Amino acid sequence: MKLRAKSPVLTGLFLFSVAFLSGCPSSSTKLSTAPVAQVNDHRLSTRELALRLARRLKNLDAFSAKNPLIIQNAKDEILKDFIIQSLIIDWARSHDIKVSDSDVDKEVEKIRAGYPDDLAFRRSLADENMSFSEWRESLRYTLIQRAFFEQLRAKLPTPTEAEIKKYFEENRSQFRKRERVFIRQIVSDEESKAELLRTEAKNKDFANLAQKYSIAPERKSGGAVGWVEKGNVDFFDPVFSQPVGALSQIIKSPFGFHIVKVEKKLPASAGSLDEARPEIVRHLMAQREQGAFVSWLDGQIRSSRVLKDYQLLQSIQVETRSSND
User: Fold this and answer.
1) How many structural domains is the chain composed of?
2) Most-buried pick from 49, 55, 142, 242 (CB within 10 A)?
3) pLDDT single digits (tens) 22-43
């Protein structure tokens, strides 16, 4: 018979459930807790893998969700994540790095503050088919992972001036700058309000009006959007033809009705090393971090006990059926 994972995920017109083969009914419970993979003392049960697989496939249509290649790739990614998580947790233990409940609670409140209300927050968990306690524990690992990468980065040497210049010379085209304008804006949810604000902005301080009346996030900084390159934001393109200090006509976008003031202009240029330096340093440091992590991971896997039950992995299947079934 087939043993289905609990709490299958409903999405669109299909219900996704992960099923794994079992020889007889009496073995179902034992099978659901059997480890499909193990890293030192960490175990990934078939039931846990089934739930993770259902989450990964939940937004796919029925045809894609049953594609053997897609399923295999999803299984591989789940196992890779499990191995990395297990090894980072072991690293934290060996370095006596602990995340307290209060640390997790602070992270929980920080994330919850980004939702309009508790109902929206709970709905997002339900969409992921995840309980609050499960999500909370995942945050604990996120904090451990953050500590791991902070220590990894701290040991990396910063790029030398010669390395920065070499990268710039080899990738000059990447740093070319299109025509740019530095703009402030006031965004209103109604066109009539925007017209009144545009009239006021002719005689009053634009930044103060933005702070008081704009609905855009940058209102706190007086409506300062910053430098915008031509072609990056299509509804800002008309302001490139207006003179510095002038106010745009009302611009309608999916975000509302915009009044834009151009404060500075720069022509297209090849881009300088000084302008490109921060981006180059970030890129080179990211490369070093990736190389250091791959090296660390390879060493940890070699020195750890990593087991996979390939037969059990292959027996895990995906079924789809209409939500009306």
Assistant:
1) 2
2) 49
3) 445 555 556 678 899 999 999 9
